[in-house]
Batch of 2 targets.
Target 1
Amino acid sequence: MTAEEFEEFYAQTVARLTGQLYVMLGDRQEAQDVVQEAFVRGWSRRHRLHRDGGPEAWIRTVAWRLAVSRWRSARRTADAWRRSGPPPAAEEPGPDSLALVEALRGLPPRQRRVLTLHYVCDLSVEQIAAETESSPSTVKTHLARGRTALARTLPDPRHEEASGV
């Protein structure tokens, strides 16, 4: 099946398949999601779909299996919640945490990631270099530039303590 044939197949069958899965599942959004995912999977197999002789049945079967897989996953998650209970309540972030997050948002993504890995995840320069696929010198550069940028943005707590604020 060529790309054009697949697009035509999609246009002719997506509404019908979504309606069929809606009836099977009882949830329109879920039907739309699994049918779309099935078509995505079918796209990579489009050259074999035509030879199989039943591309619509294939899409419908894949969509059904995706829905069943989602149900099983949801059931396992619900069972885990029942066994362990809800997670403990997380503390609301304080003003200092909010200020830090806001300041970090102003940094380029690489600097923000490196600073977080170093100061929050407590990783060494070498570990960060391996995780980010960068050289240690690049990591050090991002750390230095990030700290400089944060120093311009965030108040220095040592000055606040000295002034009694």
Note: DSSP finds nine helices and no strands in the chain.
Target 2
Amino acid sequence: MTQLTGQPATDDVVHLTVPADGGYLGVLRTATAGLAARLQFALDEIEDLRIAVDEACAMLLAIAARGADLDCRFTVIEDALTVEVTVPTVPGAKLPAESSFAWKVLTALTTSASASAVAGRATISLLTRRTTGW
């Protein structure tokens, strides 16, 4: 995961848990847009981030254990928003390779993206910095 220079205030972290089902991704897309708007991201930056979060979640839903929850942690820091999405996985699950189309989408739409799969849980972390001024 990318290290950020500033530390978020306690109230600048939002944690949402939804069932690992595509029907609930709208909740995460809406939260993403709201937090990016709070940081005064441009409209196209907000849409790019919404698409990236949707893509990251789709990657995780494909390997999620049955009946699992999708945990999403948003951290607001100065001119950046980090999104970390985690889900318990089925045994032997693997995330798409970094050379895959899905990863190319994530890296094109965000400042940085990373993933890990440890102890039956997969996590995708996204960092997006605002490119427009206040």
Note: The CA atoms of residues 97 and 103 lie 7 Å apart.
